[in-house]
# Entry
Amino acid sequence: MSMLPYDLISMQDLDKAQIVSIMERATYYKAKVIDQGARLKVLEGRSIATLFFEPSTRTRCSFEMAGKYLGAEVLNVEIATSSVTKGESLKDTGLTLQMMGVDLFVIRHPMSGASGLFASYVEPPVINGGDGSHEHPTQALLDLMCMLDKLGSVAGRKVAIIGDVFHSRVARANATCLTKMGAEVVFAGPPTLMPDGADMMGCRLTYSMEEALKGADVVMMLRVQMERQKAGMFPTVSEYHRLYGLTPERIAMASKGALVMHPAPINRGVEISTPAADGPQSQINYQVTCGVAVRMALLDMMIRRGC
# Structure
């Protein structure tokens, strides 16, 4: 088993062997804890603090469940009622919690780079739960687990990532993760929501959804992130859905049985229609299950280093 880096800020922090080790541990925990209902004590006596400066359901709750399934104490810091509202700095918040005996931090923040900055202030390991438009490494890992469970391997597979790529930390993390595992990644979306050439991460780009879908084994839709856009970057929501919304008809353009994925929350009728989101090829709910398993693996491997 490969030792993980001390902090997990970016998918760039992990090599292929480390990713494989995480997948192996996550598969074990999915079978043991989620499928069989076991409750373990491997992290008994350890404490995990989550600091979410942005709203979250899936990431925050899955980290909480993962910690509790492994026997850890989980402290969810309510930012709105914490001393942050009085002007306390990120550094002082972290140092305060560190002195209370926290063994690992999970942080989400609207500023790109905030998780790495936070890690430089505190001694315990830090997992990036999403920072601005930078990265979301645990999302990429759970997406990979979902693909491996359903496809067996991603090597040589085509993954189409479609939508608001420019603002998407999920797209960046997935591109790095999937290319390391041998997948072909294609970005698609309107020109105003595409990265420039310097930020392509070794992936192919097209403005044609149909071109991206052709031969795709996985279709990953991205939420249109209105909160990160300073100005309208497409005419109307209905126009966006007409050109880049996933429907059953468009799913049929991909490879037979192609997986339909989305990091959620989904905007029904914007980047994906309800029939597509709830259809037989959709893995959106299964991604949530994989998220708990992956986060159990990370908590265990990063707190009990080498075990």
